[in-house]
Amino acid sequence: MASHPTTSLPWPDARRAVHAAGAAAMRAPVTVPLVEAEGLTLAEPLTARAPMPAFPTSSVDGWAVRGAGPWRITGQVLAGSPAPALTTDGTCVEIATGAMVPTGASVIVRVEDSTVSGDEVTGEARAPHEWRDIGEEAAGGEELMPAGTRINPAVLGLAASAGHDVLRVHKAPKVATLVFGDELLVEGVAGDGRVRDALGPQVPAWLRRLGAEALPPVVPVPDTLDAHVDALKKALDGGADLICTTGGTMHGPVDHLHPALKELGAEYVVNTVEVRPGFPMLVAALPGGRFVCGLPGNPQSAVVALVTLVMPLLAGLVGAPVPPLGTVTLGAEVPGRGGHTHLALVRRDPADGLAYPLPHANSAMLRGLARAIGFAVVAPDTTGTPGASVPLVALP
C-alpha cells in the first residue's frame, strides 16, 4: 500500500526506475495497417522483406548499352516494366530513371551525353554504371529500424519500400490529466486570490508530443479527498493507462493525493526526486498495471516532473529505450543546487550556438519555459561553467 515516503531518488535513478516499471507493464502489441501507424511505436524490428532494390535500377535517363559503341537501338525500358536481356554486343535500349536495368548491360550512357542518328546511339558513359545494385540499400531480411522506434512519416515510407502492408506496434498509452485546486480559474484573468489554470491546456499538449493519446483534462478537481478519489476512479474507468495529476504532491492541509493513492491500493515507484525545481514528484503503480504520476502544482515544476518521470515511463510502456539526453555547451554560468540535480532552463543563441540560462525561470513561471530549448542538467555538487558541455533534456 502507498505509505508516507522517507527516501527520495537521485534524478538519473528515478528516470531508470519509472522506465523499468513502464516496461514491466507493457501491453501486448497489435497489428495495424501502414496508414494507421504514424506516431505509434514499432513492437518488433522493421526488416526488409526483399533486397532493396530488388533488381538493378537505373539512376538516370539514357541508354543501357552492351559492348563498344556505336549501339543499335533495340527497344525501350520504362519504370514498372520487365527488361528483356541485352544479348548482343553493340546494342542498346532506351531506359528511364527507375527502370529495371537489362541483364547484359555494360554501362548506361546518359541521354545528355549521347547522340542519336537514325537507330544508332553514340556517346560516352560517365561512370562504370549508373544504376542501383540489388540490395544496395538493404539485403533481404536486414534490420532497418529497431523495435522501440517511434514511427514518423519517413519510417512509414521506409516500411512501404521494404514491402510491408502492416506493422506490429505498441499503441499509444491513454493518459488522463487531473488538475487539482479550488483556487483555479479556467477562463479570464486572475484575481481575488484565484489564479488561472496553466496546466490543463499545457500538460495534454506535452503528452501528445510524447506520443500519448491525451484524454481531455479535468479542471479543476476540488480539494477534498473524496473528489480526488472519485476523479482518479473515473479516469481509470475511462481507460487511462496513466493519470497525470497536478498539485497535491506534498503533505499540506489540502494535499490529498497521497491518501487517495493509499485508498486505491497504489505502490510507489518513485516518491520525490533529488532535483530542483520540482522535487515533490511521484509515480505510483496501481493494480492492473496502470500508473499515477503526481506533478507539482507550480507550472514549471510540473514540466520538470513531466520530462523526468512521464517521458521515460511512457517510453517503457511502448518498448522504447530510456529517452537519450542531448548535449549543449554553456555560454554562461549555471549555478548548481547543492546535492540535487539542477534542471535549468536554457535558450540557444543563434549567433554562437551556445546555451544560456533564461530569466523568468522561477518554478511558478512559464515565460522562460516558452523561450527554452530544454533543461540543462547540472549534476549535484557542481556548477555549470562557461564552455562546459552538459546534458540537455530537450523539450518534447
Q: Could you walk me through the main structural features you see in this protein, from its secondary elements to its overall organization?
A:
- By secondary structure, this protein is an alpha/beta fold.
- The longest helix has 19 residues, at about 300-315.
- The relative contact order is 0.15.
- Strands 1, 22, 25, 26, 27, 28 and 29 form a 7-stranded mixed sheet that branches. Strands 15, 18, 19, 20, 21, 23 and 24 form a 7-stranded mixed sheet that branches. Strands 9-6-8-7-11-10 form a 6-stranded mixed sheet, with no helix packed on it.
- β23 and β24 form a beta hairpin.
- The chain has 4 domains: about 10-25 and about 170-315, MoaB/Mog-like domain (Molybdenum Cofactor Biosythetic Enzyme, Chain A), CATH 3.40.980.10; about 30-50 and about 135-170, Molybdopterin biosynthesis moea protein, domain 2, CATH 3.90.105.10; about 55-130, Beta Complex (Molybdopterin biosynthesis moeA protein, domain 3), CATH 2.170.190; about 325-395, Beta-clip.
- α1 (about 10-25) packs across α6 and α4 packs across α5 (about 255-265).
- Helix content is about 20%, strand content about 30%.
In short:
Its EC number is 2.10.1.1. This protein has 396 residues and is of the alpha/beta class.
